[in-house]
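hey
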């Protein structure tokens, strides 16, 4: 019997004779987890793929932090995967169709079925990390389980639709976005920029909770400038700019490339992952995607500055990671990045125009770059270490759910 034959009756997933074994095994694991006496937080999103960025790092960092600091809370992730699998790490993958040209992302098709899987965990609180099938399924699961649902707004789908399909696509997506997010018990925004977009769409009940950074993984002492220059075949006088991320249109990689070409010697641009499939460009060096965060940290910390030209970035977790590595950042004075990059830790371009961006790079290097890097590390540690971020987020969870375990560490099993 195939996955599509799985019955959903009265909001419950049923074990039925002849059920596909991987589906049955996953369901048995979920039902066993649902008998856990601790209150359970379930995170669900489709923004989770082998090469996905900030959302995945946020979820995995939260899982590790909760296990260490909130043992009285059970935590599970329900995300798309190539096949059904419920791991001992509390990560449940449900089979979903791979998106063509989607860089590994998968799209679940049935809201009702996804909601039934989430509800089977008997959650006390659900956090939805997208407005797509998992987000809609989370709302259905909340009704079935009788628990509150928080929506974390990690992106602006209306602006992305306009970027990729044209302005005509913005309004319909915005209306659908607003309709969905207005149903959550609380909406979490990672930046004031996204909070304003939510308010413009008619959504209230918003709380701003920035993302954070793993300061023990991303740190200055991982850097070795001589190593990187040898690796890239560059001289000691080279000024190396770095960007790490997906090769997505909204990242404005073309702005970075054109700005570096305008500047000429001694500037070079290193693209980690973002240059995949790109034709050779003068003064641009493409490195493959790095799965290991420590390897990414080593590259970033070995560069002179980090560059980020997305002017509609919801937050920009990679920017915080660069700052934690002790590197100053050149960003654009717009979007979420403008809220984290101050004049004390970097330089903001007036716009995402290549001329403006090139001027901002020159302005940064007219200052004491290393001193800015020291300030950037201190800023990241003081304001954005995950411990501070998750303490604030757990206060929101406790308020919404009424469960004191989110704010009061207690003894409990460490298994998730």
């Amino acid at each position: 019997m195939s996955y599509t034959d799985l019955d959903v009756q009265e909001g419950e997933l049923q074990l039925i004779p002849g059920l596909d074994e991987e589906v049955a095994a996953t369901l048995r694991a979920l039902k066993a987890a649902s008998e856990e006496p601790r209150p359970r937080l379930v995170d669900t999103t489709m923004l989770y793929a082998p090469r996905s960025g900030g959302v995945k790092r946020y979820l995995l960092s939260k899982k590790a932090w909760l296990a260490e600091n909130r043992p009285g809370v059970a935590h599970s992730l329900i995300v798309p995967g190539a096949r059904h699998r419920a791991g001992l790490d509390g990560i449940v993958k449900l089979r979903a169709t791979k998106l063509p040209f989607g860089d590994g992302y998968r799209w679940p098709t049935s809201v009702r079925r996804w909601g039934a899987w989430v509800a089977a965990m008997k959650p006390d609180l659900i956090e939805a990390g997208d407005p797509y099938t998992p987000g809609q399924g989370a709302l259905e699961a909340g009704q079935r389980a009788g628990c509150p649902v928080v929506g974390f707004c990690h992106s602006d789908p209306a602006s992305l639709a306009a970027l990729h399909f044209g302005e005509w696509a913005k309004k319909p997506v915005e209306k659908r976005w607003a309709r969905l997010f207005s149903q959550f018990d609380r909406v979490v925004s990672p930046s004031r920029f996204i909070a304003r977009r939510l308010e413009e769409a008619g959504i209230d009940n918003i709380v701003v909770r920035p993302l954070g950074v793993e300061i023990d993984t991303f740190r200055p002492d991982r850097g070795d400038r001589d190593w990187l220059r040898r690796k890239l075949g560059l001289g000691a006088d080279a000024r190396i700019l770095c960007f790490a991320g997906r090769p997505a249109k909204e990242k404005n990689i073309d702005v970075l490339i054109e700005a570096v070409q305008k500047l000429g010697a001694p500037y070079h641009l290193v693209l980690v992952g973002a240059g995949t499939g790109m034709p050779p460009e003068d003064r641009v060096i493409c490195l493959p995607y790095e799965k290991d965060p420590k390897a990414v940290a080593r590259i970033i910390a070995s560069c002179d500055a980090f560059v980020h030209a997305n002017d509609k970035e919801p937050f920009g977790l990679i920017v915080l990671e660069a700052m934690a590595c002790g590197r100053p950042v050149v960003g654009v004075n717009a979007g979420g990045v403008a809220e984290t990059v101050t004049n004390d830790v970097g330089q903001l371009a007036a716009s995402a125009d290549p001329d403006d961006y090139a001027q901002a790079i020159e302005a940064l290097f007219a200052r004491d770059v290393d001193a800015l890097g020291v300030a950037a590390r201190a800023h990241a540690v003081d304001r954005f270490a995950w411990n501070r971020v998750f303490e604030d987020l757990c206060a929101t969870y406790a308020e919404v759910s009424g469960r004191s375990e989110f704010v009061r560490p207690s003894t409990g099993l460490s298994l998730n």
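The chain has 15 helices and 18 strands. The longest strand covers residues 74-81.
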